[in-house]
Design a protein that fits this description.
The complex is a heterodimer of chains A (about 450) and B (about 160). In chain A, about 65% of the residues lie in helices and about 5% in strands. With about 450 residues, chain A is mostly helical. A 3-stranded antiparallel beta sheet of chain A has the order 2-3-4, with no helix packed on it. In chain A, strands 5-6 form a two-stranded antiparallel sheet. In chain A, α4 packs parallel to α14. Chain B folds into 2 domains: about 30 residues; about 90 residues, Tumour Suppressor Smad4, CATH 2.60.200.20. The longest helix of chain B is centred in the N-terminal third of the chain and has 31 residues. Chain B is rod-shaped. Classes of the chains: A mainly alpha (about 450), B alpha+beta (about 160). The interface between A and B is large, with 67 and 61 residues. Chain B: This is FHA domain-containing protein. Chain B: Keywords: Phosphoprotein.
C-alpha cells in the first residue's frame, strides 16, 4: 500500500452466529409443525416427536458445524432457509401419510424414507464441503461433467435399468432403489456449461451482426445453442419429460446470456423454445392433454382430476389455511410430491404458501448475489447456473400447480418427496456455499516488490 | 382439543414462519450495509462511505485510483483515466491504450474493479502478466502503485 490510510481495509464478517440463530428458528418451525399435525389430527402430540425431532435437529446442527469448520466465510442465510423448507416438506409428507392411511389408500408411508434421504442429503452436503475445497478445481473436469450429464440423461431409456412410470421414462431402477438421473444431470450440466462458456464466451460475444437493434450471434456460433436445444427436444421425445426439457434449455439460454452479455441469445432461445413447444403440441398427445388441462381443466374432470382437486385444495385453504392436519390434502393424487405446494396452500393458506415462495426467492437471491460478488468467471457462471436452475424449477412447479402455465412435472426443491431430488439439491447448496466462502474470504495480501530485474522477461539494456 | 386452541396454533405457526422469513431478510440487510470499514484517520461520527452495490452507480470510494499509468516500456508516460469500467490492455485496437510492444498480446490483460478493489486478470496472453515474480493466473487484487508487468511494459494504478 503506497499511502497509508488511503485504502480502506475490509473486515469480512463471518456471521456464523446469525446463521446459528436462524437455524434454531428453522428447526423450531420443523418440530413445531410436526407437533401441530398431531394436535390437529387427533388432539395429541405425535408419539415419536422426541426421536424424530432430535434426529432432525442433530443433522441440521451438524451441517452448521461443518459450514463453520470448512466454509467459515460462507453465506449465513442459505443453510437455515433450506433447513426450514426441508422441515416443512417432511412434516407435510408425514401428514399426507396419515391422511392416506385413514383413507385406506395402498400408497405410503413416505415420511420415513424422506427423513432417511434428508439425512443422507445432509451427509452429501458435508462431503461436498469437505472434498471440494476450491470450486475452481471443478473447471478442470468441464468435459468430464459434460459427458457425465449426457450419460445420466441417456440412462433412463436404456432397456434393463430404464423404468417408465406414469407416462414419463425418467427413472432408473437398481434393485430396490429407483433414481431420477435428471436431477444429477442438472448439476453436471451447470458445471459443464460454466466451464465451456468461460472458455468460449469471447467468440460468442464479439462476433455477430445487428438486426432490428438486437445483436444476433453469427450463424456458426449457433452450434452450441442448437445442440442444447436438440438435447432438450430429445428428452421431450424419448423420455416424455416436459419439465426437465424446459429446465435444461432455460438453464442453457440464461447461462449463454450471462456469459456473453448479449440479449440476442434470449431472442434466439425464445424463438427456439416456441418452435419446440409448437412441435411438442403438434406431435405428442400427452403435451396436448397438459395444454388442454391448463386452458380448461373442467372440460374433462376425470382426466384432470388431480389438477382440479389441487385447485379446490388451494381454495379450501383460503387466506390463512385450514391449519396443520385439518385440511384434506391426501385427496389430491401425488399431493406429497408433485403437488406438495397445493397441499401446503391448503393447510397453511396463502399466508404460508407466500412464506414458502419468499424463502425460495431468498435462496435464489443469495445464489445470484454470490455470483455477483464472485471474483472468477467460472464461479460466477456456476453460481448463476445453479440458482437459475433452482428458480426455473420453482417457477415451473408453482406455475403448474396454480394453473399459471401448463403442468409439467418437476419436483418442488426440498419439499417434495423424492430421494434424488433431496440429495442433489443439498449438493447444489453445498456448491453455492463453497463459492460463497471463496468470495467472502478476505483477499490475500499483495506485496509490492521493488526489484523487478530478476523477473524481467526481456532485458531492456 | 378445542376449536380456539387449534386456531391459535394455526395463527401462531404462521406468525413464527413469517418471523423466520423476516429475520432472514434482516440478516441479509445487515450483510449488505453492515460491512465494517477500518479507516484509521476518520472521525467516529462521520458516516462510513457506502460501497457501490448491485447495479446502482454511487460516488467513487475515497482513495480509489483515478488513472492507469504506463511507467515503463515503449508507451511510457501515457495514461488512461479509470472509473468503474474494466480497462483492457493489449496491442489490439479495442484496448484502452494500444501498446506498441512486441511482447504484448492483442488482448493481454484486463484491469477491473468490484467497487472496492481493483483486480488484474490475464486474458490468456503469450508472455504472461506479472506482479513482481508472480505470474497472474487468476484475478489478483492490485493496490495503488503496484507495478504490473506485461511484456516490456510496466503499468500501475495511481490516484
Amino acid at each position: 500500500m503506497s499511502a497509508p490510510g488511503s485504502t480502506p481495509t475490509w473486515i469480512p464478517r463471518k456471521r456464523r452466529t446469525a446463521e446459528l440463530g436462524l437455524l434454531l428458528l428453522a428447526i423450531a418451525i420443523g418440530i413445531g409443525s410436526y407437533a401441530a399435525v398431531g394436535l390437529g389430527l387427533d388432539g395429541s402430540v405425535p408419539p415419536g416427536i422426541y426421536t424424530v425431532g432430535a434426529v432432525y435437529a442433530i443433522v441440521a446442527l451438524g451441517a452448521h458445524v461443518a459450514v463453520r469448520r470448512f466454509a467459515g466465510y460462507a453465506d449465513p442465510v442459505l443453510l437455515p432457509l433450506v433447513v426450514a423448507l426441508n422441515g416443512i416438506g417432511l412434516v407435510m409428507i408425514y401428514r399426507i401419510d396419515l391422511g392416506l392411511d385413514a383413507m385406506g389408500s395402498p400408497y405410503g408411508p413416505f415420511a420415513q424414507g424422506q427423513l432417511r434421504w434428508t439425512v443422507l442429503g445432509i451427509l452429501m452436503f458435508v462431503a461436498v464441503l469437505v472434498l471440494i475445497r476450491d470450486h475452481r478445481r471443478l473447471q478442470q473436469y468441464t468435459y468430464t461433467f459434460g459427458l457425465a450429464a449426457i450419460a445420466l440423461l441417456v440412462l433412463p431409456i436404456l432397456p434393463v435399468i430404464g423404468n417408465a412410470k406414469r407416462g414419463a421414462q425418467i427413472w432408473i431402477q437398481l434393485g430396490p432403489f429407483s433414481f431420477q438421473p435428471a436431477e444429477a444431470a442438472k448439476i453436471a450440466l451447470a458445471i459443464f456449461f460454466a466451464g465451456y462458456l468461460v472458455a468460449k464466451r469471447d467468440a460468442l460475444a464479439l462476433a455477430g451482426r445487428r438486426i432490428l437493434g438486437v445483436d444476433l450471434p453469427r450463424g456458426r456460433d449457433l452450434g452450441p445453442i442448437l445442440l442444447g436445444w436438440l438435447i432438450s427436444v430429445g428428452i421431450l421425445v424419448f423420455q416424455r419429460d416436459l419439465g426437465s426439457s424446459l429446465l435444461f434449455f432455460g438453464l442453457f439460454v440464461v447461462m449463454l446470456y450471462v456469459a456473453t452479455e448479449r440479449p440476442g441469445w434470449l431472442f434466439v432461445g425464445t424463438a427456439l423454445f416456441a418452435v419446440g413447444a409448437w412441435f411438442g403440441y403438434a406431435a405428442f398427445g400427452h403435451v396436448r392433454e397438459r395444454f388442454d388441462a391448463w386452458l380448461d381443466p373442467w372440460s374433462d374432470p376425470d382426466q384432470n382430476y388431480q389438477l382440479i382437486t389441487a385447485l379446490y385444495g388451494l381454495g379450501h385453504g383460503g387466506l390463512l389455511g385450514r391449519g396443520w392436519g385439518e385440511g384434506s390434502p391426501e385427496l389430491t393424487p401425488f399431493g406429497f410430491s408433485d403437488f406438495i405446494l397445493s397441499s401446503i396452500g391448503e393447510e397453511l393458506g396463502l399466508t404460508g404458501l407466500m412464506a414458502v415462495i419468499v424463502v425460495y426467492g431468498l435462496i435464489v437471491e443469495r445464489g445470484l448475489r454470490i455470483a455477483l460478488t464472485c471474483r472468477d468467471a467460472f464461479g460466477k457462471l456456476l453460481a448463476v447456473g445453479l440458482s437459475v436452475s433452482f428458480a426455473l424449477q420453482v417457477f415451473v412447479v408453482a406455475g403448474g400447480v396454480t394453473r399459471l402455465i401448463p403442468l409439467t412435472g418437476l419436483t418442488a426443491p426440498f419439499l417434495a418427496a423424492g430421494g434424488s431430488s433431496i440429495i442433489m439439491n443439498w449438493i447444489i447448496v453445498a456448491l453455492l456455499l463453497r463459492i460463497s466462502d471463496q468470495t467472502r474470504r478476505p483477499a490475500p495480501e499483495v506485496s509490492t516488490i521493488s526489484g523487478d530485474d530478476e523477473t524481467q522477461v526481456v532485458k531492456l539494456s | 382439543m378445542s376449536e380456539l386452541t387449534l386456531t391459535l396454533i394455526k395463527l401462531g405457526f404462521l406468525a413464527v414462519l413469517w418471523l423466520f422469513v423476516l429475520s432472514a431478510v434482516s440478516v441479509i440487510r445487515t450483510d449488505i450495509f453492515g460491512t465494517k470499514v477500518q479507516t484509521p484517520k476518520q472521525p467516529k461520527g462521520e458516516k462510513k462511505p457506502k460501497q457501490p452495490k448491485g447495479g446502482t452507480r454511487t460516488r467513487r470510494v475515497r482513495g480509489a485510483p483515478s488513472q492507469l499509468v504506463i511507467v515503463d516500456g515503449p508507451n511510457a508516460g501515457q495514461s488512461v483515466p479509470v472509473s468503474t469500467e474494466p480497462v483492457l490492455l493489449g496491442r489490439g485496437t479495442d484496448a484502452a491504450i494500444r501498446l506498441d510492444d512486441d511482447y504484448v498480446s492483442t488482448r493481454h490483460a484486463r484491469f477491473a474493479t468490484n467497487g472496492e478493489q481493483w483486480f488484474v486478470e490475464d486474458l490468456g496472453s503469450t508472455n504472461g502478466t506479472f506482479i513482481g515474480s508472480q505470474r497472474v493466473t487468476s484475478p489478483v487484487p492490485v493496490a495503488l502503485g503496484t507495478a504490473v508487468r506485461l511484456g516490456k511494459t510496466i503499468v500501475e494504478l495511481r490516484k
